[in-house]
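# nightly structure sweep
# worker-07 picked up a monomer target from the shared queue
# config: single-sequence mode, recycle default, output format = structure tokens
# input follows
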Amino acid sequence: MKIIELQQTDSTNSWLSAHAGELEGECLVYALSQTAGRGQRGNSWESEPGKNLTASILLHPAGVLPQCQFVISEAVALAVTDFLADLGLDAMVKWPNDIYVGDRKICGILIEHAVMPGVIMRTIAGIGININQRQFVSDAPNPVSVWQLTGNEYEIPSLAEKLAAHVENRMKEVFDGTLHSEFMRKLWRGDGNLYDFYDRNAGEHVSARIKSVAPDGMLTIETASGELRTFAFKEIEFLL
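# output follows
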């Protein structure tokens, strides 16, 4: 996988989208300073310049049907947990694709597909991992960095290479039938116990357990009373 370093850009996802036609094959681009990093549904991403790994990866997931696109998100999320395991951290995936260590968010992922009828033309996976940042000043409720957890600092360029390798390895598994079961085992709060959620569709708090995640990414929970409810992204909130 080709790796490109940028000194500064507004968003690596935006940069890669603008330059995708000029690039051959898969590519990871990372920025030492990202001025307008994006998260799910337009959320911003706090990142101190030079301290974190803010990257986007261009993928060409040939053969993955649009209705099964969540397998790509699973592969990328598991690649990040592999990457963090190399740094001594046991990370979990908070549905749909945030990465947590304990109850604290260490990574956000934004998956964007270019889709034609019946086929995914390309995918851009934006990945922001908190690495060397020592203090967070935004109103995000629970951020954490590798440095805060381990006391160790890392060189960002070498970490970019490691991340690229892990994504490449996981993308090789999208058709072998094992990714989804591993994703479910690594799912934060996916242990079958009851947890508190806020159902934004119904406007109410519920106690429920995670039941399943569908190939299109829809989440199904089972309430304490046995009722099944299914949600798209942003329709349900995990309460800390």
